Every structure is written in structure tokens, then in C-alpha cells.
Amino acid sequence: MDRSGFFKNTSRSDENRKNRQHQVTELRKDRRGEQISKRRQVIEGTTDDGMAESGGLTNSVELIDTHQIKQIFLESDSNPDKVFSAVQSCRKILSRVSRPPIDEIINVGLLPHLVHFLTLDGSPELQFESCWAITNIASGTPLQTKAVVEGGAVPHLMRLLSSTHAHVAEQAIWALGNVAGDSAMYRDFVIESGIIPLLVDMTASTTASITLHRHVAWTLSNLCRNTDPPTSIESLTKIIPSIRLRLCVDTTA
Q1: Pick from 52, 50, 185, 183: which is nearest to 104 by CA?
Q2: Where are the alpha helices (DSSP H) in the chain?
Q3: Distance between CA 100 and CA 243 in Å, rounded?
Q4: Which bin fits 79, alpha (ψ -120 to 50), beta or left (φ > 0)?
Q5: Are 67 and 89 in contact (CB under 8 A)?
Q6: What radius of gyration do the chain's Cα atoms show?
Q7: For residue 81, which of 24, 87, 103, 252 sits 20 to 30 Å off, Cα-Cα?
Q8: What is the pLDDT of residues 22-54, one digit of tens each?
Q9: 202 Cβ partners below 8 Å, 6+ apart?
């Protein structure tokens, strides 16, 4: 009697198990990569309504909802302080630790206004708040990042890398890092926009802050991320020397 059918094909079983393990490992790598490639700037201790539980930045301004924010943006006679408070509310809503309403912000139509505020060089604090809000929108799903790119934010963010206000420039780096970390297409778009020489120049100064060095290092790593297709050799030859210099920076301060 042929008993071969009573026994499992152990070699095939082992192969299938290895394939499953490989797939799980790759999935975990992909998820970990997605978490590393984008960062959202949150306010610790912030509740789901955007308010701080105690202390912090958020309890200094009463938050308003997205429709009220849009109404303020649309009012041509809105005073600057009122507009600033509305943008700050938008940023704080997007800075929730969990479940930030990114889609709602986009669908209500606030993004074009935030992009416009990036152009107001006479109001650096307004630029900073708008840039922070856009950073958090770009930290979301590919569709949410797409809204930032198609909304025309990238050229304005690139321009802000040359801002004389360090905190504005640092926030712009973060926002562009999120865009570049989304996909190979957006990575190349950011590179083609001229980000590499600007980042190199920003960190050449002996007065560059540790925070700036960290943002630059992380954004440069995103410019090397994604392998389908990989970053061009031409771009890598410009990026690698800068990364090597970042390794010599003392970030323990």
C-alpha cells in the first residue's frame, strides 16, 4: 500500500511558511518605513477637542471650528489678529495627539488660505502657524499629501527655507520632508525644486541650531528613501557629503 499520501510534503510546507514570514516581515518594514518617513508635530497633553489638559500652548487661545475658521478667512475686513487666531486654531486642531481632522480641513477649503498665508513675509508668525498646519496635513495619507502638493504649497515652502526667521525656515524643512517622504514621485519633485543646495547652505553656518541640523538630516534621509525608482546618482552625490557632515554634528546639546 502506497502510504506517501498520508505524509505532508514537508519541503513545500517549509517553503510556504518561509514565504508567509517574509511577507509579514516586509509588511512590518513597510509600515515602519511609513511611520519614519513622515512626522506630525503634536502638542503633548492635547485632548481630542484640541485643548491642552494643563499648561502648554493651546490653552492661551479659544479654539473655533473649521467652518468658523473659513468664515474668518473669507471676510475681507477680518483684522490681522483675528486671522492669526483662526490659523492658530487650525494648527492646534491638526496637532491633536489622535484623530486629527485632516480630511475635514481639506474638504472645508482651508488649505488654499494656509498656502496663501505662506506668502505674507511681513507676518512671520502667521507664516509659521500656517507652515505648521501644512506640515501636519502633509504628514497624513498619500491623498492628503497630494492635496498639499496640488495646492501649490511646495514652491512657497521652498522659498521659506531662505527666511530670516529661523523657526519659519525650520518648519518649512519639516513640511518639505513630509512631502518628500510620501513617494518617489514627490521625492523627485522636491529634489527638482532645488532643495538640496538650500539645505546644504542652511547648515553651513556655524550658528545653525541643533534643531535645524536634525530637521535637515531627517529630510535628507527622506530624499534617499523609496526605491521604485531609487534616488538618482546625481542627487545622491550631492546628498551624501552633507549627510557625512551631519554625522560630525554634536546633537546631544
Answers
A1: 50
A2: 10-37, 66-74, 80-94, 102-108, 111-117, 124-138, 142-150, 153-160, 166-180, 184-192, 195-204, 210-223, 233-246
A3: 33
A4: beta
A5: no
A6: 22
A7: 103
A8: 444 444 444 445 545 676 677 654 445 544 433
A9: 161, 169, 173, 208, 212, 216
